Amino acid sequence: MNILVIDDSKLMRKMVGAIIAAEGNTPHAASGAERALKILDKITIDLIFMDVEMPKMNGFELTRLIREKKQSWIPIIFLTASTDDTHLTEGIESGGDDYMMKPINSVVVAAKIKAMARIVNMKKELDTANRRLLQLSNVDALTGIMNRRGFNESLKRDWKNHTREQKEISMVFLDIDNFKAFNDNYGHQRGDECLKQFSSVINSQLKRPMDTLARYGGEEFVILLPNTALDGAALIGVNIIDALAREKIPHQFSPVAPYLTASMGITSSRFSAENETILIQQADQAVYKAKMQGRNRYSVYEPKLQEEGIGKLINLSAI
Ligand SMILES: [Mg+2]
């Protein structure tokens, strides 16, 4: 394990460091908050011994700061000269995991390292298992709707049904308008909240269990509508525009509207896509057109645009 000793006393850093090394671990040392935070940025630390009484920032304050900054949990054991019980409470409340009185005893320190190593290893196994589960899962962790992986599976299955049953299948591809400006101005945390709210608004517009809504990536979403004709998909497009106008998620940095809007591209199997990948490409092209036309709207894929280059004469958007 990489173990960090934070103590303003050089003697303490040396003593605890020697015990850490004797136990077969790698000691790192910092005399205060500034140095400690630098080390934590560079090295993956598994355990921290933290002096409570330090000039500038004390151990409790530094612990709170580390807990705020660091996403993954690192066990922190306080070292203190104080014998006051309320001190112990404050330490645990600031985010510490254990508490040792000075002067320290090498046998006790060694035992605590062993005990913490067990917890650290369990935590690592748990983290690995969680990551694997999330990868295997078809759910987008942020919004709770299907992710791209799940969507690709649904698309394959529904496309297969479509080719067998010869029923029209439609797709609506959505791209949130000016989402970069949202993130840049409101921050990523509100950006995440906004994605959640957006996906729930879209979800509320889908009434059939066979319909699939997925987060395709970033601020892109996609809806798959089996057994649905193009005009049915267009109706959903209209409903989404209305629903977003009612929801009015504030976006004062959008040139389109003072609230969050989306550009949508709609296509269906009637344009004789050879496979499901082509269907996505068609929908994507239609999104591009919706953006070119001013955003906050849907646009329907126009095959003639590709083939003859006279697409401007044809307006399918009125469907
Ligand atoms: Mg001290």
Describe the structure.
There is one protein chain. This protein is of the alpha/beta class and 319 residues long. The chain folds into 2 domains: 2-136, Rossmann fold; 148-313, Reverse transcriptase/Diguanylate cyclase domain (Alpha-Beta Plaits). It is built from 11 helices and 10 strands. Strand 4, helix 4 and strand 5 (98-101) form a beta-alpha-beta unit. The protein is elongated, with a radius of gyration of 28 Å. The model is unreliable at 308-319 (pLDDT under 50). Magnesium ion binds next to loops.
Features:
319 residues; alpha/beta; Rossmann fold; Alpha-Beta Plaits; 2 domains; five-stranded parallel sheet; elongated; binds magnesium ion
In short:
The protein is an alpha/beta fold and 319 residues long. 49% of the residues lie in helices and 17% in strands. It is elongated and about 80 Å long.
